[in-house]
Design goal:
By secondary structure, chain A is α/β, with parallel strands linked by helices. Chain B has a domain at 76-160: Ubiquitin-like (UB roll). Chain B has helices spanning 64-72, 98-109, 146-152, and strands at 3-4, 7-8, 76-81, 88-91, 115-117, 121-123, 127-132, 138-140, 155-160. The N and C termini of chain B lie far apart (50 Å). Classes of the chains: A alpha/beta, B alpha+beta. Chain A: It is found in: Nucleus.
Chain lengths: 585, 168
């Protein structure tokens, strides 16, 4: 009781604790633990860049070495968040530059990053080593050049699915002429050509390079030449495979791959012709991760490839794999943990592929280690869902996208309630769930009751009434992120469960029936929630009972943000003031 | 105004009527009603069929880079030549006009195509490039504008010698 743990001892103990959730718990024990913890936290994660101010974070964690930030809501990936919404990296970079100059790693997701930000990073953090930008936008290749030129200790530079203003391939020549410390380089999202000679020389003088992901502009010849210089690669993203098939090209490619004896992960493969696939056979037995989701390869070429991948843990593929192909995966890829099947023809009119629920059932039965699923399919059945739940209670992530909105079980014409009930009940470790197809309020009663560990839930075109939201917000104990579109619930459940929203990171609702009036009440009732109405029209020009287009609600200790664009309306906490743009224009 | 896929979002968006006149269920949701569950309450709308499914914004939830890759950039068609042992495939999107395409075909199959004239088709070499269009008809390559051709061509066949009349 009277004994206090010396802070040095506590520090030492904390050095073994990496998980930020645990560290957050530690920091709540008492003031001195809070102090010791904050001074020793090296890896900082902020899931919503508007939940807390950059200055507060910089002040709290002076020894920060790694910062991870997320900006826009997830539905921004599907164009549901208008451009200009926010998520600017600059205030964070500026604050860290001033207070945490020893920062070595920055990872940003769905944020707006400008060249100015990149130049600031390059100029401010002398030990900078890792830059990973995922789904970011707002910068050009000039910014990348600044990083390449200035960060002498750069180990990781990854641009994952970013929208970059591509001013040409020059940026590559800005890496230091002497040997580099590069371990991972990913420029797969860039459009323009890089000079292959620049790339060859960079690879040759980067002895630690383990991961290289090229953009589609890199040709097959280029790939061969690079593989010859970097046979030690463990991860490879190829360039485009589109080229005239010449016999010599094939054998050169085959040979180059066969020399890459440590290759574990393969991606890219844009435009790959089936005739080239045999060149990959030599690396298949060692592959743990294969991303064929950009390869328009069909059966049976796919099976020829996949049956050689006995160690495969992660497979991303298009629905061109068909049920037959997944049946083969189920029998050859026994180590499979993650499966993602993307639609080859996202426009429904052209959907015509023999991929049904049966494909996923095969994999669920055959792959005992399967724990993460993303599956696009035109329609589904309850029976399939029940089988999947029964066979794979170890599922942690289950995202089913029945492409046809409101599609019932096509064999019984019932809603998919029973099926998703089985998933929620059976898969007790489920952390992430996306539901689709015809679903009544009942489905959400089951989910609310049984999905105790689900942290992220995505819902579209489902439910009948307010009950749906009521069930979710009164259950789902671990819910942190809820995103809903096109569901017919209104104000009641939202207001009734306002307190729940503070236990969550965020709630996104679009094309639902939540009224502006309810948003006002919610905002005034809950001082630590930002209630953002994203609507083309000023909410005051309409009656309070009219629904708003999109609402984004998130907990925050930073108050309403000051950088909202014209179409984002933050409800002022003071009922006298009403609605305002708090940005000073 | 947000425009996606060339379509004004307003077409499929939540509609707002006169102040005070709306009941919740009357409002059209920006989604497609299927034939079963929901009553279609928007009696104020035309009784035209619901908008085509491709018009739902952000649905299916696939990132735009995937949509582009899968539909737009690749357009492989099979190419056969009479007498050649196996078929080849070419990506029509790699060519911008007929001369480029014909040159590629000539390289691929080692032949030369004759001179094209609108009236008489291909003359001179005995090889005639033809294609199957979306309606299943076999047409002479070159008759229609390039864009029309490249979007309707399903298959190519290079007819040879006596099988190929000089005009179709």
């Amino acid at each position: 009781m009277g004994l206090r743990l010396p802070s040095k001892v506590l520090e030492h103990i904390l050095s073994f604790i990496d998980s930020n959730e645990d560290r957050n718990s530690v920091s709540l024990v008492c003031k001195s633990w809070f102090e010791t913890e904050r001074k020793t936290r090296k890896r900082v994660f902020v899931g919503n860049c508007y939940a807390v101010s950059p200055a507060a974070v910089a002040k709290r964690f002076p020894e920060m070495r790694s910062l991870t930030l997320k900006g826009k809501p997830h539905f921004a990936d599907y164009n549901l968040v208008p451009d200009g919404w926010g998520g600017y990296a600059w205030p964070w970079i500026e604050a860290m530059a001033a207070k945490c100059p020893s920062l070595e790693e920055i990872r940003l997701k769905r944020m707006v990053v400008t060249d100015e930000c990149l130049e600031k990073i390059a100029a401010s953090f002398k030990d900078f080593e890792v830059l990973v930008l995922t789904s970011c936008e707002g910068f050009s290749t000039d910014g990348i050049a600044a990083i390449a030129a200035t960060c002498r200790n750069l180990r990781v530079l990854e641009l994952r699915e970013c929208i970059v203003e591509d001013l040409g391939g020059d940026w590559l020549s800005y890496f230091p002429e002497t040997s580099t410390s590069l371990v991972s380089l990913d420029f797969s999202c860039l459009d323009s050509e890089v000079k292959i000679s620049d790339l060859e020389r960079l690879v040759s003088r980067s002895p630690n390079l383990k991961s290289l992901k090229l953009n589609p502009a890199v040709t097959l010849d280029g790939l061969v030449s690079l593989l010859r210089r970097a046979p030690q690669l463990t991860e490879l993203g190829t360039g485009s495979f589109a080229a005239q098939l010449k016999p010599e090209a094939f054998s050169k490619l085959s040979e180059a791959f066969s020399n890459c004896k440590q290759l574990q992960s393969l991606s890219g493969l844009w435009d790959v012709l089936p005739e080239y696939l045999p060149a990959l056979y030599s690396v298949c037995p060692g592959l743990t991760s294969l991303n064929l989701s950009y390869a328009t390869v069909r059966m049976p070429d796919l099976v020829e490839l996949l049956r050689r991948c006995s160690k495969l843990q992660k497979l991303w593929v298009m629905d061109l794999i068909e049920d037959k192909g997944l049946e083969a995966v189920a029998s050859y890829c026994k180590e499979l943990q993650e499966l993602r099947v993307f639609p080859s023809a996202p426009d429904l009119d052209e959907a015509n592929i023999p991929l049904t629920e049966q494909g996923l059932v095969f994999v669920s039965k055959g792959c005992r280690k399967l724990e993460s699923v993303l599956y696009f399919c035109v329609q589904f059945t309850n029976a399939a869902l029940l089988t999947i739940a029964r066979k794979r209670p170890n599922l942690k992530c289950f995202r089913l996208c029945v492409i046809e909105p409101f599609a019932p079980d096509y064999k019984t014409n019932e809603p998919l309630d029973k099926g998703f009930k089985a998933i929620a009940e059976g898969c007790k470790d489920l952390r992430r769930l996306s539901v689709s197809g015809l679903l009544s309020d009942k489905a959400f009663k089951y989910i609310g009751k049984h999905a105790k560990k689900v942290r992220m839930l995505s819902i579209a075109f489902a439910g009948d009434s307010d009950l749906m939201l009521h069930h979710l917000l009164s259950g789902c104990e671990s819910l942190k992120k809820l995103e809903i579109r096109d569901c017919p619930f209104g104000d009641t459940a939202l207001l009734e469960h306002a307190a729940k929203l503070e236990t969550m990171r965020s709630l996104w609702m679009s094309s639902c029936f939540v009224s502006f009036g309810a948003c006002k009440i919610l905002s005034q009732k809950m001082p630590r929630l930002n209630v953002e109405v994203i609507d083309e029209h000023p909410p005051e020009t309409r009656p309070e009972s009219s629904p708003v287009e999109r609402i984004y609600i998130y907990r925050t200790v930073a108050g309403p943000r000051m950088d909202t664009p014209e179409f984002v309306w933050t409800i002022h906490k003071n009922p006298e003031i009403g609605v305002s743009h708090l940005a000073i224009k | 105004m947000e425009v996606t896929n060339g379509l004004n979002l307003k077409d499929t968006e939540l509609r707002l009527g006169l102040p005070g006149a709306q009941e919740e269920q009357q409002l059209e949701v920006s989604c497609v009603r299927s034939n079963n569950k929901r009553k279609n309450n928007d009696s104020t709308e035309e009784s035209a069929p619901p908008p085509a499914k491709t018009q739902i914004v952000g649905w299916p939830p696939v990132r735009s880079n995937r949509k582009n890759n899968n539909n737009k950039n690749v357009s492989y068609v099979k190419v056969s030549m009479d007498g050649a042992p196996y078929l080849r495939k070419i990506d029509l999107k790699m060519y911008k006009n007929y001369p480029e395409l014909l040159k590629a075909l000539e390289n691929m199959f080692k032949f030369t195509v004759g001179e094209y004239s609108e009236r008489e088709g291909y003359k001179g070499s005995g090889f005639v490039p033809t294609y199957e269009d979306k309606d299943g008809d076999w047409m002479l390559v070159g008759d229609v504008p390039w864009d029309m051709f490249s979007s309707s061509c399903q298959k190519l066949r290079i007819m040879k010698g006596s099988e190929a009349p000089t005009a179709l």
